[in-house]
């Protein structure tokens, strides 16, 4: 699920497509809509999923309608991450506010959990987390689950309970308190997509009977940046299908748009040697005034193909303290969708390989390391109580492997 940055959400909320085109697409030919999440718009490509952060936009009225996401599939991140980093006032931003915004604007959303992963972290000599300890985070999260359970008004929304913990014992302790409130699935954060955290959590939920529950339809992983992990999640989907478990595994990522701030421009996928996307960096140290007027970006995606004037696209400046400074605003907004297009194409090609249903095809396509980990995943769920699998998983994924 593409997670849209606060900057993109602000742009879509405050500007119509004509304004967006005027500010970002003067160097483009067709100037198509960037609202790829709405199939009714003439956009460069379409993807119906969109993740927004309630913690960043909850004060904006009619948010979903204003950004034209009425017929999209909207995942609302309730704001726990913001609370954990103290970028939201934990005394003012309440379960009531989060639930009301989520129901008004989303199709899928978690409870307002209070994450534990920032406990003990310091920023400029002060604690990052506004909460004093694990128990306070747990108690507030359980209270949130209770509030959502008792006050939800939409039966058509998918609400996710949330588990926390870096070890099975921590997950079990958290689950014991919060599982009394049943929702349509589970979400898990603070892992960065590491299988050494995610597989034990899934196995715990499996052993607890949660994944066999008819109303449990989704397991969502917050904040994934690793392309390697994204491959494993697709494989995990196949594993659960073979087990006869009707569970949709999802994850979100902001990698495609946040890296543009550093000039990241994805160039091509890597399937055999390495994994993920190769990229080059367009930095502000380059003298773009020396760029050929005939230059074309090295890509045939719909966005890059529509760019008529690459010289004009890169040469944007403003004066600061008497000096000319380059501006990358157009780059950040437009190249984000180039990156997303390539990322989605990469994942679709991986899905097609898995659709073969043949181990020989997997092994011909992926590096041996990845295929070895497919076998580990199979063994991990075929041998539910295997200490050997647990030890191997820890060695591979919790010792700097990803």
From TrEMBL:
<feature type="domain" description="tRNA-guanine(15) transglycosylase-like">
    <location>
        <begin position="128"/>
        <end position="356"/>
    </location>
</feature>
<dbReference type="Pfam" id="PF01702">
    <property type="entry name" value="TGT"/>
</dbReference>
<dbReference type="GO" id="GO:0006400">
    <property type="term" value="P:tRNA modification"/>
</dbReference>
<dbReference type="InterPro" id="IPR036511">
    <property type="entry name" value="TGT-like_sf"/>
</dbReference>
<dbReference type="InterPro" id="IPR002616">
    <property type="entry name" value="tRNA_ribo_trans-like"/>
</dbReference>
<protein>
    <recommendedName>
        <fullName>tRNA-guanine(15) transglycosylase-like domain-containing protein</fullName>
    </recommendedName>
</protein>
